[in-house]
Amino acid sequence: MVTCPKCKTENPDNATNCKLCLINLALALSHPEQFGLEKMQDQKSEEVSESRARVEEQNRKKLGKKRNAGAVIFYSLITLGIYMPVWFYKINKEIKEHDPNQKFSPGWATVGLFVPIANLVAIYNTANRIKTMQKADGVQDLISPGGALVWAILFFIGYPIVVQGALNSHWYEHAKNAAPADSGKKA
To answer: What is the DSSP letter of 68?
Structure first.
């Protein structure tokens, strides 16, 4: 269990946010001063270190794969479109693993690609899920779900460029933000 430093609520080990106050646990445990929290007492410092290590390790595991959007298009073309739903499922699964608070099924999202009108909703919602992750991280340059939908309708090959580009940026920022914590552990 991970104890929230703000409200002292016990959260599951795999929680990214506190279930009561919704604070980002990895950030709050590693940088409590940014949240107006005082450092934990000395007797709890070891417990905090262990909790922080568990949360950071889980967050590292939950990062999605950085893909080349050109490769997604290339594989889709040489497989006559079969790779596109595979890629769509994979990115939705990675989003779900990274942010379990988003309530959807990657499988049903992918099935929606094969149903008229539902396919437009699935395409829009996937971009919107990425936007939700970006907002949670305080990113200023957000993906436009409507723009991604237009790219999918007008130039279907443009959709992976927009969506995978936004995901790659998100995964890169998370990996970059986790790097200072890693270097501090080795010292």
So the answer is: -
Question: pTM score > 0.85 for this model?
Answer: no
Give backbone dihedrals phi and psi of 125, rounded to 5 degrees, phi first: -65, -35
pLDDT in tens, 87-123: 999 999 999 998 888 999 999 999 999 999 999 999 9
Q: With H, G, I as helix, E, B as strand and everything else as coil, classify residue 64.
A: coil
Q: How far is CA 158 from CA 9, 20, 61, 123, in A?
A: 44, 40, 29, 12
Instruction: Compute the residue count for the chain.
Output: 187
> How many other CB atoms are found less than 10 A from the CB of residue 116?
6
Cα Rg of the chain (Å, integer): 19
Q: Would you kindly state where each structural domain of the chain is located, as residue ranges?
A: 2-61, 69-176
Q: What percent of the chain has a predicted confidence (pLDDT) above 70?
A: 79
